[in-house]
Amino acid sequence: MAAALATPPVTKTTAPTTAPRKRRLGLGKLTVNLILIAVSVVYVLPLLWMALASISDLNTFQLKLPGSLTLDNFDAVLNVDTTFRPMLNSLLLCGFGTAITVVASILCAYPLSRYRSRVRRPFLYTILFSTGLPITAVMIPVYSMFVQVNLIDSMPGTTLFLAASSLPFGIWLMKNFMDGVPVVLEEAARIDGANTMQVLWRVVLPLMRPGVVVVTIFTFIGMWGNFFVPFILLLSPEKLPASVSVFTFLSAHDQTQYGQLSAFSIIYSLPVVMLYLLLARKLGGGFALGGALKG
Question: What's the whole-model pTM score?
């Protein structure tokens, strides 16, 4: 009886060691970090050269420490013709163009996100195709059209074309953000008597504010760095934006003013950095829609 009630001996099994797995994971993580560091160096070196060249007394393309620090390069470019007027032209072109693009993208994305029709899918495919169409492929007919309607060398005409060329990407991106807003919130607002525009501006847009910020930043950056469109459509030197006036620092006879070019590039990048810093805090919260559906 005692032998029958005796518990059988427990055989201990040795768990497979995890040392080889940890070693492989550590090696893979180290490889990824080294690759990321190499990619970061590729991006940091041009920025480091630009920062050093802007305060250097050496007019050279090589990356080397300056013999002495100087602000003469900034003094040479900080004038009306070189920097102030082109920067103002860029702000006018990109600011108004971005505002037109964002507002038009919101108005176009809302019906595409909320209503179903037979032309919806072909229209979305057309927008998707337009986002990948290079701007150089349409500039010849656009230039011919601008000549016929007397919009060549026109700041409003160039602004409208910049907005129109950015609109497909804005619509596509804005629609994807708008799809994340629950429809039940709109239905509750309609029950309370709100019309379509009130639902859009008072219910949908406050909930997708990070999406609007993303579209605004990407649209402004795309217009700010656009060289080809204003170079073709604007002829007067006093109307050229900073993206075109930077061309004046370049020379084909090895006489490029690298120090002044670097100083101008630093000033040229400040509006984009400031815009991102002002709007980046709007991206931290994300889409807080979970609490809106409770209760």
Answer: 0.80
